[in-house]
């Protein structure tokens, strides 16, 4: 039984309790101890198949009265049976007092009846008593006591107790944080067909939490839950097909699963569907529809959608540009502890965009995000230290933050480190190291790095086999189409200083760069490769953004989603 309202929102914290030796149909509606739900309606199909032979006469008559909606009679029948120790009658009474069926709702009385049945070893009652302790309903909130009752039921094979225990082990609530224990309990519950556990186990396999990363196994568990109509799993499948994790990338399939999930109100799916529609992935781009989906998710409180909506307002993408609105949405995400929201809010504060400039407040937000390993925030902390923003200039501290961000594959940090080497700022000048950094960040699509690479190529620096001003101008022109150069970048080349022939060649190279996403391959074919290779592969934090803000196109599934 789930002691919350009968038809909870599927994205809420509701968890459905199911006895291991009884069958329940459905996922979103709450378990009831009555064989047919007292309230006839959306949840009427959810029935607990109790074996009549095991039910005493009073309890059976109580169930019959409940089917008719005659709560007063049900109460009269259940009460004496429960007082004589009938566990099913005790569970029924607990449900009535918890929900207010025929009596004033009283979670304290409900908890007392659950405890009587739980003390007799009933796994359903143990699960529900654990839930009341976890929520602090009818009893003082006590996570350790909740975990104790979940464990008693889980050891008897009760699937929901196993799933709830998996969640508690995952976040370290009432039990020590332990990914392996979380995966173990989730596996036991998933094998019994509990959709929420199947979804969570899929996330464990996606992330390699408590189990070896296995995208094929993750896909299998997502599908098992999605086939039961679980909105979270359907959303996860949308992400899986978009990313090509364990299955060939299929944008049409991704869109299908996201639409199914979003139709159920899943905020993650609404956000991801909006991003797919915004970028024309699997469907023609529709900025207005994208904005509606992303806004719906953001207004539901989903932090990644709040970040995405903030980015849209900052850039004027599908909405009228409004920096104040961007700040407001970043603030909402940051208040939830979202690292991208914190970083982006810090960027707006540091630059006085939509809000008064406040370096101290910006530093606080960057540090909060950096503690969550946000590489953009680390890069921004390096920039603040280098420029002496909100603190004295500290080139050593700047390098430290840049290197931490670079180790996570962050393109802006690679560009910033390369600039230090190109200028000999805080480090000995090293054109070869600078070239390696500019090339690595250029390969990740970072416009400022392509601008700086153009300067190096034009002047034959960093191991280039020869100077090539035409190629350098073409690279800087390519970068300028994405974003104008900032004062912190290397000098801008003057195309007017090229000869007419070289100007024509530069335009041809610019066209070649635009037609081939592998800009470095085109450059190396024309100029020849330098005596240095690009740095390591990009990571999830490597995005092409050069303005200090970040956000994902699609949000991955989360094991902590309830």
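^ structure tokens above, recovered residues below v
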């Amino acid at each position: 039984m789930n002691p919350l309202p009968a038809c909870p929102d599927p994205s809420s914290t509701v968890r459905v309790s199911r006895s291991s030796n009884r069958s329940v149909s459905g996922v979103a509606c709450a378990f009831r101890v009555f064989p047919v739900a007292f309230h006839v309606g959306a949840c009427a199909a959810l029935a607990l198949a109790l074996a009549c032979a095991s039910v005493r006469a009073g309890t059976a008559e109580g169930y019959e009265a409940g089917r008719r909606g005659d709560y007063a009679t049900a109460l009269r029948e259940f009460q004496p049976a429960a007082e004589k120790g009938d566990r099913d009658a005790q569970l029924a009474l607990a449900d009535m007092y918890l929900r207010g069926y025929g009596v004033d709702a009283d979670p304290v009385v409900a908890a007392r009846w659950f405890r009587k049945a739980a003390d007799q070893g009933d796994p359903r009652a143990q699960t529900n008593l654990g839930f009341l302790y976890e929520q602090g309903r009818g009893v003082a909130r006590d996570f350790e006591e909740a975990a104790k009752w979940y464990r008693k039921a889980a050891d008897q094979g009760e699937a929901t107790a196993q799933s709830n225990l998996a969640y508690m082990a995952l976040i370290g609530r009432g039990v020590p944080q332990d990914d392996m224990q979380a995966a173990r309990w989730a596996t036991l519950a998933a094998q019994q067909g509990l959709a929420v556990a199947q979804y969570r186990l899929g996330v464990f396999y996606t992330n390699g939490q408590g189990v070896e990363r296995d995208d094929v196994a993750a896909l299998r568990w997502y599908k098992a839950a999605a086939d039961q109509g679980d909105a979270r799993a359907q959303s996860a499948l949308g992400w899986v097909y978009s990313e090509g994790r364990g299955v060939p990338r299929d944008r049409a399939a991704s869109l299908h699963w996201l639409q199914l999930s979003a139709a159920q109100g899943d905020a993650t799916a609404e956000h991801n569907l909006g991003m797919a529609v915004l970028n024309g992935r699997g469907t023609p781009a529709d900025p207005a529809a994208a904005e509606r989906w992303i806004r719906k998710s953001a207004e539901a409180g989903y932090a990644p959608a709040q970040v995405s909506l903030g980015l849209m307002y900052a850039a004027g993408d599908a909405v009228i540009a409004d920096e104040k609105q961007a700040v407001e949405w970043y603030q909402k995400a940051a208040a939830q502890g979202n690292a991208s929201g914190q970083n982006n809010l810090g960027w707006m504060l540091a630059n006085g965009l939509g809000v008064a400039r406040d370096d101290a407040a910006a530093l606080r937000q960057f540090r909060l995000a950096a503690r969550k390993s946000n590489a953009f925030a680390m890069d921004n902390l390096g920039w603040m230290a280098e420029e002496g923003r909100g603190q004295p200039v500290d080139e050593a501290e700047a390098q430290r933050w840049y290197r931490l961000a670079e180790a996570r594959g962050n393109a802006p940090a690679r560009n910033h480190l390369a600039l230090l080497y190109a200028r000999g700022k805080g480090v000995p000048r090293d054109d070869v190291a600078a070239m390696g950094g500019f090339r690595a960040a250029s390969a990740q699509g970072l416009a400022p790095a392509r601008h700086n690479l153009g300067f190096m190529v034009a002047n034959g620096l960093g191991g280039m086999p020869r100077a090539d001003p035409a190629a350098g101008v073409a690279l800087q022109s390519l970068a300028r189409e994405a974003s104008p150069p900032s004062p912190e970048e290397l000098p801008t080349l003057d195309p007017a200083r090229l000869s007419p022939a070289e100007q024509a060649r530069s335009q041809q190279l610019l066209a070649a760069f635009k037609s081939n996403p592998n800009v470095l391959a085109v450059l190396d074919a024309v100029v020849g490769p330098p005596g240095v290779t690009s740095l390591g592969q990009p990571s999830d934090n490597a995005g092409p953004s050069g303005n200090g803000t970040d956000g994902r196109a699609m949000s991955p599934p989360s094991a902590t989603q309830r």
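The mean pLDDT is 87.
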